[in-house]
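Sequence only, no structure available. Ideas?
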Amino acid sequence: MKPFTRPSATKDKPAPAHKGAGEVRIIGGQWRRTKLPVANKSGLRPTPDRVRETLFNWLGQSLLGWKCADIFAGTGALGLEAASREATLVQLCEQDAMLVDQLQSHIDRLKAAAVHVQRTDGVSWLARQAPHSFDLVFIDPPFESQLFEPALKAAAQSVKSDGWIYLEAPKKWDDNELSAISLQTYRHLKAGNVHAHLLQRIA
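Reply:
I predicted one. Tokens follow.
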């Protein structure tokens, strides 16, 4: 005889709808606390809230007048955060057509006139831009990719002498690796498996 067990209260409830990877929340600026859905895509890795909050504490809360490029836009969290803080221009580059469509829907929803999205290879796009034309370049490629060094080289050429490069990577880049690309670390943070770097050009 089987022992009596109380039926589960959720036994007959339908499974919750799949929500993809969830959502990202804009930390500061004019769209502070706005939540945006994130697509369910393998390898899509939104920059954690804590890391973005720290990054914009390093940079300052206002990016008024800045020109920014997010060359592996993905969820758009970094670029939209910059636009929320009054960046004058934010270029989002993304190769996945579905993500490009989602980014455009975010731009439309926020009425983010300063933000533009293009379906393109971000590294090649950045290499074609005029030298020293950006105040801030975001580099957050897939961690398993070989795109880090090419992206850093392109960013080192395109960022202004007093500009910034944000690098998110699975390891800490050391001084020797960076100096070979004429870059140096200004700030570094490790959060879980993420190494966040704020880089500057070497004068």
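The helical segments are 49-59, 77-84, 97-110, 122-127, 148-158, 175-179.
Hope that gets you unstuck.
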